[in-house]
Amino acid sequence: MNVKSETCFSNHDGKPLSFFASEKEALDSAKYAKKRYGHSLLPYQCDKCNLWHLSPKSRHTQSEECSYCTDKNGALKQLYVSKNKAQKRADILYKEKAVLLDVYSCPHQNGFHLTKR
Ligand SMILES: [Zn+2]
Ligand SMILES: [Zn+2]
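That is the input. Now the predicted structure with zinc ion docked in place:
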């Protein structure tokens, strides 16, 4: 089953997103897409409609918190394992929020951070 949302659209191509009533349904569909098309998709719960959508796995950049660096609010900064991953995240944030971020390597350990330009 493939039901299209009337409220939520893809950032990527502007098409209506498929939605699912539960995480399980979304997961089942993700498994199907993986088998059938080889796409890796991850379910996420939407802030807008409270239902579940799928997004490409590549959008979910792996990151963890740095044990040393904090942002200006005093929260630990996200540490990205590779420059590529950090850059990918910066690109997404730029598209979604129009903020320009620069990637720099953490002075304390292996990894990369983003900072506002
Ligand atoms: Zn939605
Ligand atoms: Zn750091």
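The chain has a mean pLDDT of 88.
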